[in-house]
Design brief:
Elements lengths: L1 E3 L5 E3 L2 H12 L6 H17 L3 E3 H15 L1 H11 L5 H13 L41
Parallel strand pairs: 1-3
Antiparallel strand pairs: 1-2
């Protein structure tokens, strides 16, 4: 399989590199190595299904979606680095996209057993609504 980088160069798909990125995003979160392996396997299968060549952006999008299925917070952490988010507005746009776009169905991402997040996803549903506090480093509107 081949990855087309943003600059147009091509390199061999490196599953270990993908797993390292997924693990970094899930660091400190209740996500198992087995769950990350399944996400990586799903991404590799999607790339194969789509012809064996994928743009780096496509792999990043698949990684976000796969992580969102396992643990939405890990997906947001991944997106904040992968998309090089510059401010809270960009972060909010990613969170809104996760809330608005349906997550892959179970038939699209093989996750067996218990997962740290409810399979119905809790994105956008706060357990407790608390007023947001403005911090000094965020400009007031």
């Amino acid at each position: 399989m081949t990855v087309v980088k943003r600059d147009g160069t091509r390199e061999r798909f490196d599953r270990q590199k993908l797993l390292r990125g997924l693990a970094r995003a899930a660091g400190g979160r209740p996500v198992t190595d087995e769950q990350l392996e399944r996400v990586a396997a799903w991404i590799a299968a999607e790339v194969r299904r789509e012809g064996g060549e994928a743009r780096a952006e496509r792999i990043g999008d698949l990684a976000e979606r796969g992580l969102a299925r396992v643990d939405p917070v890990s997906a947001i952490q991944f997106a904040s680095v992968y998309r090089n988010l510059a401010d809270l507005d960009e972060l909010e746009a990613v969170v809104r996209r996760f809330k608005d776009d349906p997550l892959p169905g179970e038939d699209q991402l093989a996750i067996d057993g218990s997962v740290p997040s409810d399979l119905e996803s809790t994105i956008g549903r706060s357990r407790e609504i608390r007023p947001m506090k403005r911090r000094g480093h965020v400009r007031e509107p």
